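Aim 2 progress update. The chain analyzed this quarter is reproduced below.
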Amino acid sequence: MNPANDTVEITRKNTYGTWRKQKGWTPLEIVRAEGCTFTDAAGKDYLDFSSQLVCSNLGHSNRAVADAVAEQVRRLPYLNPSFTLAVRAEATRALLGVMPPGLDKFFYSTSGTEANEAAFKIARAYTGKRKIISRYRSYHGSTAGSIAATGDFRRWPAEGSSKAEGVIFAPDAYCYRCPLKQTYPACDLACADYIEYMIAHESDVAAVIVEPIVGTNGVIVPPDGYLPRLREVTAKHGVLLILDEVMTGWGRTGEWFAANHWGVVPDILTTAKGSTAAYTPLGITATSRAIAEHFEEHYFPHGHTYEAHPVSLAAVPAAVAEYRRLDLMKRSREMGEYLGQKLRDLQAKHPSVGEVRGMGLFWALELVRDRTTREPLNTEEDKFRGRPLAIDNITRFALERGIYVMGWVSHLVIAPPLIVTREEIDRGIAVLDAALAQLEG
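Predicted structure tokens:
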């Protein structure tokens, strides 16, 4: 058997593809990647227009990060987390230089899912309360606690865990499809006020968790004032605010963290992906000093074997140094303006584009069957049942032409590495233009 075919066949037959029916899954074998491009086994190059899963912020094969990881593997690849070593201090020092002020104690895990699990345990232990308020258009992970706090259909197969885990759901700050049938700014942020209503009429609320900008479920940017209002509401009622910045952190929106755009500092911030630019698996749960001091005299209820893994941590100081050296916060803002305008040009040209949303290098095209009624191309039920999706035809069309872009139900997530060039953006936009024309035809 051809080795390339063998790789695909073993993968398909003996491993699981995520969030899908397994029949028909034939993954593309990738053999190398560099910059904003990756290459398949046949030698074909693809522009990475979504940073894989919105995580390869520094692009592929950054030498400084790769060398730091390799050196740690050679020096000391694993250590019981009850010990410490220099790389743990170096990673922590790097984080202290970029985190929102006041978030200065960290729990290190291996994914965004685990970062949120830790956040829930910390919040409940600190407050002595149990309930978590999340939102419907959210994704916070796939393990028991984090999937219970996930609002979208990926929670459905685990239904029942939400009640067990004490999670309740609030309306989204989704102006294009306002669940409260309001219009901003006349609504006066009714979606945030509804969360206050929930807190007032529920007992035992420990925390509210939100993505500052919703990620997979549509890159939904909240209206101005929403996050500050939420911060006021939670502080007023003694409820912790958890911001899930797994996707929105690390320059993706033009700031180290999206919360900085609104001057909001949460009680707990969770992050992952861009902290190592996906070179190693790492989750980070950052807490306030008040929470840290609580656990000086109270039991800290969490831990696992790969906590503060030395190889995972080795990527952090190197990645932070690269973000600074390449001035990627500024670059994300500047290239984001260029990308945003190109996407708005597509909207003007294509009636299938209902809305363009984004900040920095984090954007979405929400696609509709009818701009007036805003009928989506497909629904979450369609995705869950494995029905054919129009968005999959678009992503397939793009991939055949050398552009990888992530599609989800009825929108495209456009989030290239922060090192992307104008020429690469132009190339990606040209293919999306053709894909939308085919859809409309």
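DSSP finds 15 helices and 16 strands in the chain. The first strand starts at residue 30 and ends at 34. These observations will guide the mutagenesis experiments scheduled for the next reporting period.
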